[in-house]
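Data card: per-record layout.
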Amino acid sequence: MSFLKELKCVPCRGGEPPLSEGKIQEMKPKVPQWNIVERQNVERLERVFRFKNFQEALRFTNEVGKLAQEEEHHPKIVTQWGRVKVSWFTHKIKGLHKNDFIMAAKTNDLYKKNSF
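The structure for this 116-residue chain is written out next.
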């Protein structure tokens, strides 16, 4: 995973296919805490992060938001008391892109560094 968190997202302009099933299976072990789910016919990387209270969950949500702005790649985030669900996928290709795996690794690193 460590090498993924060091990479930068590259703009996805659309017109390219989502990652193949083989490539997804190759990259998935690099972010083992994340699940691959299909919602509305779109594959996504999804993980639920747990917290002691709402304030910590909200702080993490804001940190993920800052990271998303820096990388110009934005997740779906659901913040609740004691938990945050983050979903990474690439809207323009309606599926998974290498950027999603990069951002999953960066999100893991953010969680670890801030000792939530």
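Known properties of this structure: The chain has a mean pLDDT of 93. The first strand starts at residue 35 and ends at 39.

See the next section for split statistics.
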